[in-house]
Write a structure and sequence with these properties.
279 residues; alpha+beta; Arc Repressor Mutant, subunit A; 3 domains; two-stranded antiparallel sheet; 7 strands; 39% helix; disordered N terminus; binds zinc ion
Length: 279
């Protein structure tokens, strides 16, 4: 898919942190906090020490994590390191409009229009005309978890649903790298299994498993894939409890024991074991 540079990106000033363009980047809460800092201080750019003091101390991130997050933001924004004596000051200039090295940018106007065309929130069904909601483009799988800008990873959500989803996903941002890694597995069994392993015996909510299971291709029946891991010798617990707030039942899974992956296809190995079991 060819992507156009949005016209607004030709403006030199960086977008405000609460603008729809920034919301649609799907940044994690910490990245957004960092962007806000750089934006607020764009005329008096901070040093890395100041950035670390502002961002890292607040949420317990290491200096290395903070450095990495500044690099992450450079995928989207032009952030100059300006020399000042022995330090560098990090100055936010605007969008990163470098087209040649495949960095991610704001979505093109055409793509946004295509996603928003149904004019209905994909989650709650409310519409701008009837319910006066504002629709934004949402990444089903967040970008920082490895989600793409392809049309099938994008959906229209109203601002309420979008912020609710962000809050839910935000609680798992500490696992972003593990989730990305798990999502890379070619087979759904591998994606589910690696995700459970990443949580090291902690409970993983169904909603998250469903998202990661479907990352390479949509999984209608990921629960069945998950149960099939037991055929490989995995021990997986299941629990269901009522969320006092919403009254909805929330289910989660955890792996108490896992086995190494078979040499070839996981699916083939599972069918082989199932056939053996029947004989
Ligand atoms: Zn909604």
């Amino acid at each position: 898919m060819t992507e156009e540079i949005p016209e607004e990106a030709s403006s030199e000033s960086p977008p405000t942190p609460d603008s729809p363009e920034v919301a649609e980047l799907g940044l994690s809460a910490v990245h957004l906090q960092l962007y806000k800092l750089l934006y607020d201080l764009r005329h008096t750019p901070p040093t890395m020490l100041q950035i670390r003091a502002e961002i890292a101390d607040g949420n317990g991130s290491s200096p290395a994590q903070t450095d990495r997050r500044v690099r992450d933001l450079r995928d989207y924004f032009l952030i100059d390191a300006v020399r000042d004596g022995r330090n560098h000051r990090y100055q936010l200039r605007g969008w990163n409009r470098d087209r040649n090295n495949g960095l991610r940018r704001a979505l093109s106007r055409r793509l946004r229009a295509q996603v928003l065309a149904p004019q209905r929130c994909a989650q709650c069904g409310r519409t701008p005309t009837e319910h006066h909601v504002v629709l934004v483009v949402d990444h089903k799988v967040p970008r920082h978890w490895g989600g793409t800008d392809e049309l099938d990873n994008l959906q229209p959500l109203c601002e309420d649903c979008n912020s609710g989803k962000k809050a839910f996903y935000g609680t798992y941002d500490d696992y972003a790298n593990e989730i990305k890694e798990a999502a890379n597995h070619d087979e759904p069994h591998g994606r589910i299994g690696e995700l459970l392993k990443a949580f090291q015996g902690d409970w993983v909510p169904s909603e998250l498993i469903g998202v990661v299971a479907s990352m390479k291709q949509y999984q209608d029946d990921w629960q069945k894939r998950l149960r099939e891991l037991r055929t490989l010798g995995w021990q997986i617990d299941f629990k269901k409890k009522k969320d006092p707030k919403s009254g909805r039942f929330l289910s989660s899974y955890r792996a108490k024991h896992w086995e190494p992956w078979p040499e070839g296809s996981i699916r083939a190995e599972i069918s082989r074991l199932e056939q053996d079991g029947k004989q």
